[in-house]
Automatic annotation (TrEMBL):
Residues 266-305 are annotated as: Disordered. It catalyses: 2 superoxide + 2 H(+) = H2O2 + O2. GO terms for cellular component: chloroplast nucleoid. GO terms for molecular function: metal ion binding; superoxide dismutase activity. This is superoxide dismutase. Its cofactor is Fe cation.
């Protein structure tokens, strides 16, 4: 049987900033319309993405988020994203990548590849379920609260900004608290807060499936403001849903733990950059050519013009 393949060339220029573990050489997106063409020895290994359940039972967030909403939101919508993505990536070079890498590669500078929406929605929903807990709400504490006070003036200032982002996101989307680490330029996306200093907390909103991973921010908290997230419990009263989320559902333990990981990740990157700078200086001092990011042998004639 002969496979028909459609392909889109992904250039390497947007790959490195998010620390992808894929090759920086040109990456070919190739979707085989049949899976029957590859010999067993060269068959792409399929790593099927799984539907992860929320870390609590379907009725655990009642009365603030009903069992009916969870069963519908997780059981139908979230499940649909997983099933659709598995079909979309089967036999492509996205198959076998981590979910995060699929998101970053398929974001493609905002010119989305077909897998992006399903991949990002899976990640966003996993993150959303883990942003809540039974008996949640209240206030953050420790280092997180200190940075919230520094960057938003007070916890109340943060809540006001977060609620405003969630309620003013036009149509479907998400609001986020994220840690903006040590990079201003992201090869894969336009930074929505380029003039802000780094190493600070920011509130951002995103449309449809977009999330802060594509800007190289570290997400800490999110709320789903697609209508399917609240319509069964609150009808069209999005503001009421947002207030209940903040007052009764947020897991500040999860947010604090993500914050610690974000800081550790940022510190590790700084150390890596410092090591790279030192190596380059050493090479330069020894008269050795400094290794450039793009291997010239990867540049084809059209790119060289
Ligand atoms: Fe959703």
């Amino acid at each position: 049987m002969v496979a028909t393949a459609t392909s889109t060339l992904l250039t390497s220029s947007f790959l490195p900033c998010q620390g992808l573990r894929v090759s920086t050489r040109s990456l070919q997106w190739r979707k085989n319309e049949t899976n029957c063409t590859r010999k067993a020895g060269s068959r792409i290994i399929t790593a099927k993405l799984e539907l992860r359940p929320p870390p609590y039972s379907m009725n655990a967030l009642e009365p603030h988020m009903s069992r009916k909403t969870l069963e519908y939101h997780w059981g139908k919508h979230h499940r649909g994203y997983v099933e659709n993505l598995n079909k979309q990536i089967m036999g492509t070079e996205l198959d076998g990548m981590t979910l995060e890498d699929i998101i970053i590669v398929s974001y493609n500078k905002g010119d989305l590849l077909p897998a992006f929406n399903n991949a990002a929605q899976i990640w966003n929903h996993d993150f959303f379920w883990e942003s809540m807990k039974p008996g949640g709400g209240g206030n953050p504490s420790g280092d997180l609260l200190e940075l919230i006070d520094r960057d938003f003036g007070s916890f109340e200032g943060f809540v006001k900004e977060f609620k405003s982002a969630a309620s003013t996101q036009f149509g479907s989307g998400w609001a986020w608290l994220a840690y903006k680490a040590n990079r201003l330029d992201v090869g894969n996306a336009v930074n929505p807060r380029p003039s802000d200093e780094d190493k600070k907390l920011v509130v951002v909103k995103s449309h449809n499936a977009v999330n802060p991973l594509v800007w190289d921010y570290s997400p800490l908290l999110t709320i789903d403001v697609w209508e399917h997230a609240y319509y069964l419990d609150f009808q069209n009263k999005r503001a009421d849903y947002i207030s209940i989320f903040m007052e009764k559902l947020v897991s500040w333990e999860a947010v604090s733990s993500r914050f610690e990981m974000a800081k550790a990740r940022a510190a590790e990157r700084e150390r890596e950059e410092e090591r790279r700078r030192e190596e380059e200086e050493e090479q330069s001092a020894n008269g050795e050519p400094v290794e450039m990011y793009l291997d010239s042998s990867d540049t084809d004639a059209s790119e060289a013009e």
